[in-house]
Design brief:
Blueprint (H helix, E strand, L loop, with lengths): L2 E6 L9 H9 L3 H9 L3 E3 L2 E2 L11 E6 L17 E5 L3 E6 L16 H7 L24 E7 L2 H12 L4 E9 L6 E5 L2 E3 L7 E3 L7 E9 L3 E8 L6 H8 L14 H6 L7 E9 L6 E5 L4 H13 L1
Parallel strand pairs: 7-14
Antiparallel strand pairs: 1-4, 2-3, 2-4, 5-6, 6-7, 8-13, 8-14, 9-12, 10-11, 12-13, 14-15
Helix pairs in contact: 1-2
């Protein structure tokens, strides 16, 4: 069902092009705004307008937003390279390889953790949206490492709460460009979608509170290996915060990494790995911890960085 929005143009957008004003008001790209204008889904003071028309403060906008696309259901088929680190009747911990999303999303056609588990005959909790049942946290498709999925309904509920209340210890290793000063520190900077609407996230005023702790493990000539702990779990959080410090993850071209260095270290994605995941077991109450070794591409890049130093 389409979503009807009616609102005045705020003073801060007076004089902006209509497509630019819509992009800033609704958070989608100017291309998407232009498409809505072209098909007549945007009225200014009750009249059709062109994307290049300038808007004035107080002008009344009537916008018809199409219903959001629905995520596909998971395809139950085994995922090559996805290892099981631990399993019991309540949860299953996987070592997620790159190129695998946590669950199906709009526009993603590749393999998923949930589909891989179902395809291998594992059961998962039925709580949550149909396309992401059992999923209590996520890793980016091209971030490897430890990830837990709930199998029982009680585990789903308690693990979701533990992640929300920040009672889970998530440790990552990241190889970032250059050397951080200070060598140990905290990044406390809000994150939200990048104004460009191109799928990136960014540090923006008014974004969601985001806190990242880092500690330098080893410094190489052109890069540093960091141990990172998260207090919050925003999308792309480590990648965004490291980029904001001007030390993007090696290979993370989306967030400004040097392609020459990435090629030299033979890494084709962001050098970021979820090394350890620790939490209170939802039914036994025991503190449990699971660790993942570096996959081959990250280990090779680290070795090459060492040779250069």
């Amino acid at each position: 069902m389409a979503d009807q929005r009616s609102l005045p143009v705020p003073d801060g957008l007076a004089g902006e092009r209509l497509d630019a004003a819509l992009s800033r008001l609704f958070g989608f790209s100017r291309t998407r705004a232009a498409e809505l204008i072209a098909v007549g889904d945007v009225l200014v003071d009750g009249q059709a307008a062109a994307k290049s028309d300038r808007v004035h403060a107080g002008a009344w906008l009537d916008v018809t937003l199409p219903p959001p696309p629905t995520a596909p259901m998971p395809v139950a088929e085994p995922v090559p390279g996805m290892k099981i680190l631990y399993e019991d009747s309540d949860l299953i911990v996987v070592d997620k390889p790159i190129g695998v999303a946590a669950h199906p999303t709009v526009g993603w056609t590749g393999p998923t953790v949930i589909g891989g588990l179902l395809g291998a005959g594992h059961t998962v909790a039925t709580s949550g949206a149909a396309e992401r049942q059992g999923i209590v946290h996520r890793l980016d498709a091209n971030t490897s490492g430890t990830m837990v999925v709930a199998k029982s309904e009680v585990a789903y509920s308690l693990l979701k709460r533990a992640f929300k209340e920040r009672r889970v210890d998530k440790r990552y290793h990241a190889l970032v460009q250059g050397h951080l000063d200070p060598l140990r520190g905290t990044v406390d900077a809000p994150i939200d979608r990048h104004p460009s609407g191109d799928g990136r996230f960014a540090v923006v005023a008014g974004g969601k509170p985001s806190i990242t702790h880092y500690d330098t493990v080893e410094a190489f000539r052109a890069a540093s290996l960091l141990d990172i702990g998260l207090e919050t779990g925003r999308t792309h959080q480590i990648r965004v915060h490291m980029s904001a410090l001007r030390h993007p993850c090696v290979g993370d071209l989306m967030y400004g990494a040097d392609p020459t260095l990435a090629a030299r270290l033979k890494v084709g994605r962001q050098w970021l790995h979820a090394v350890t995941l620790s939490f209170e077991h939802p039914t036994t109450g025991a503190w449990v911890s699971f660790t993942s070794e570096y996959p081959e591409d990250l280990a090779t890049a680290l070795e090459l960085a060492g040779r250069e130093s």
